[in-house]
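Whiteboard transcription, Tuesday session. T.W. wrote the structure tokens on the left side:
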């Protein structure tokens, strides 16, 4: 068990979030398998309140990029993000340009299903939606990394445009967007250190 734990930790500690992707195609079945893996996540009352919307369509990806860049332009250039927020992002070097949304071969948008709609039109509440969807998101990222694929958790704020562009119903709300592909050869990421175990673990 310890050997498996060590091997898995070594795999995951190498995970990074690149913002430059190669345009090389990624087989559909790999994306589908990552979604299938994420869908094994635990959920409140076993409601499984997630929808993974995947697209490789050039026009859809362009529409997503254009809408995301407009929201981010307001965030960065018109000060919708406060000074503290922008200061926190400065070391990463991000701005409102999001070319990767068109270059990455796949985009998957994870939606949270706030309530389910029965065939007769009645609504049934889902429970612990954000917690459940958050766990599924982490498992999705892990599955992709295990395959050798890269992704980035992209959350342009606000994200309501994704509901419109992707034609999703009113009971779904966008949670996070994942551009997915192979890292562009030679791409570099900030040399950040992760917090040591003693900084994140508390035993009582």
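and on the right, the sequence the group agreed on:
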């Amino acid at each position: 068990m310890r050997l498996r734990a060590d091997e898995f930790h070594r795999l995951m500690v190498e995970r990074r979030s690149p913002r430059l992707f190669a345009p090389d195609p990624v087989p559909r079945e790999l994306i589908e398998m990552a979604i299938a893996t994420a869908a094994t996540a635990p959920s409140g009352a076993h409601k499984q309140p997630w929808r993974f919307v995947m697209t490789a369509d050039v026009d859809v990806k362009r529409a997503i990029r254009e809408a995301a860049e407009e929201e981010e332009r307001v965030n960065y250039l018109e000060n919708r993000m406060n000074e503290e927020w922008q200061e926190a992002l400065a070391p990463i070097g991000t701005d409102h340009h999001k070319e990767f949304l068109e270059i990455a071969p796949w985009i998957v948008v994870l939606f949270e299903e706030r309530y389910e709609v029965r065939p007769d039109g009645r609504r049934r509440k889902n429970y612990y939606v954000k917690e459940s969807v958050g766990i599924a998101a982490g498992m999705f990222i892990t599955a992709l990394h295990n395959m050798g694929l890269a992704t980035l958790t992209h959350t342009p704020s606000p994200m309501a445009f994704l509901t419109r562009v992707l034609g999703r119903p009113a009971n779904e709300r966008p949670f996070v967007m994942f551009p997915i592909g192979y890292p562009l050869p030679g791409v570099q990421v900030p040399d950040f250190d992760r917090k040591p175990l003693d900084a994140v673990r508390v035993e009582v």
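Someone added at the bottom: The chain has one domain: 17-182.
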